Structures are given as structure tokens and as C-alpha cells.
Amino acid sequence: MYEIGDEANGYRWDGQRWVPVVPPPPPPGPVVGQPGTGAYTGLTWDGRRWVGQTVVQGEQNGLGTASLVIGIIAVCLCGGGILAILAIVFGNTGMKRAKTGLATNGGIAKAGFILGWVALGISILFGVLYLISLASSPSTRY
After folding, report:
1. Residue ranges of the chain whose pLDDT lies below 70
2. Are strands 40-41 and 54-55 parallel, antiparallel or unpaired?
3. For the sheet containing 11-13, what is the strand order?
4. What digits encode the pLDDT tens for the residues 78-105?
5. Distance from C-alpha of 127 to C-alpha of 132, rounded to nearest angstrom
6. Which residues pair with 8 in a beta bridge?
7. Residue 21, class by beta-carbon neighbours within 10 Å (0-12 exposed, 13-18 middle, 19+ buried)?
8. If 84 and its partner were Cys, which of 63, 101, 120, 133 is the partner (CB 3.0–4.6 Å)?
9. pLDDT tens-digit profile of 116-126?
10. What is the distance between the alpha carbons of residues 43 and 73, in angstroms, rounded to a whole number?
11. Between β-strands 40-41 and 44-45, what pairing exists: parallel, antiparallel or unpaired?
12. Which residue pairs, CB below 8 angstroms and at least 24 apart, start in 44-51?
């Protein structure tokens, strides 16, 4: 039938009756299960093992940094309409991530966002000046 030490559903057979298995003590260090306290969080004991391990992701700073780099390039190109729009979108997303705590470079994202708007303004200004110059130039038709 059952042998001493058999386990099922969180219970162990001691030869006469089923006794609950006592979970092992948590590992030394930070408290298990609190977010941000180690490499793994969300552990629960199901009677036999720790389950529910999820890896904690690091900061998501990529979009804020990309926004700054693209914004600088767009301003150096005296506009760059598509790059300016990308800098604005990436900067906005980076600032939202910093506000919610997913990123740590909110200032960099804001700088990229502002540079994107500056580059877009330069691009619009040059477009308007170009259209004015086309309208004011004499026609060269023969």
C-alpha cells in the first residue's frame, strides 16, 4: 500500500496516518514574495515546492535614451520631420515609464521629448519658408 515517507498533495505517510509536510524555511536574505526584493518574486508554497517564480525585469530606459539620441540628430539635421516625430513619441513613452517606476531616466526622456518638438518646429519653419520662396519666385515658363 503506502510506504513510510510517501508524499501526496502536501502530506507525508508516517506509517499510521497522513501528516502535513512542513515547508522548508525561506532562504536567508530578503523576504520572499515581496516585489523588488531579489531576483525572483511571487513565490508561494503549494505543499511540496515553491511555485510561481517570475523574473523581475530591470529598468526600461531604452526609449528615453533613444528619444534623446534621435532628438539630437533631428536638431543637427535642422528639422528631420520623421526623426522629430519619433523623438516625441519615444520621449513621451519614456516619461510615462519613468512616472510609473518602470524606468529611471525620466529627465533624459523629457530632454528627448523637448528636442523632438524643437526639431519639428524647425522642420515646419523651413517648410513654410520653402513654400513662400516658391510662391514669390517668378515663373520660368516659356
Report:
1. 1-2, 23-58, 139-142
2. antiparallel
3. 7-8, 11-13, 18-20
4. 878 899 999 999 999 999 988 888 888 9
5. 9
6. 11
7. middle
8. 120
9. 999 999 999 99
10. 45
11. unpaired
12. 46/10, 47/9, 47/10, 47/11, 47/20, 47/21, 47/23, 48/7, 48/10, 48/21
pLDDT at 74: 93
Return the number of other C-beta atoms located less than 10 Å from residue 77's C-beta: 14
Please give the grid coordinates belonging to residue 1: 500500500
Q: Report d(CA 80, CA 123) in Å as an integer.
A: 6
Q: Provide the grid cell at 69.
A: 539620441
Cell of 13: 505517510
- Residues 36-63: b if buried by 16+ CB within 10 A, e if exposed: eeeeebebebeeeebeeeeeeeeebbeb
Give the three cell numbers for residue 24: 522548508
Q: Is the pTM of this model over 0.85?
A: no
What pLDDT does residue 80 have?
Answer: 82
Element (H, E) at 50: strand 50-51
